[in-house]
Amino acid sequence: QKIALFIAGQYTEDDAIKELKDRGLSDETVQKILPLLQRGVEIAKILNWKEEIWAKEAELENQVDSMTLEELLQLDVKKLCEDTYSQIPLEV
Hints:
Layout: H1 2-7, H2 13-22, H3 27-65, H4 69-74, H5 77-85
Helix pairs in contact: 3-5
């Protein structure tokens, strides 16, 4: 939950540090935990990015499935894919 809040900008590293210290953890322990939390955020971003790709692929599939034979024969597949995937940020 905290990672999702962090990604949404509703939870900061300072919030995490304060929360961990409020639980009685030492500065040393907090400093060991922070990289793990940062890694968790990066993994969550990658998973969200993957979900975006799958959603775009589903859109493509639905779009192609709904086309008539005439439309399919005139379809520029390369352009359709480029247009669809250009909407997904490459940076995670």
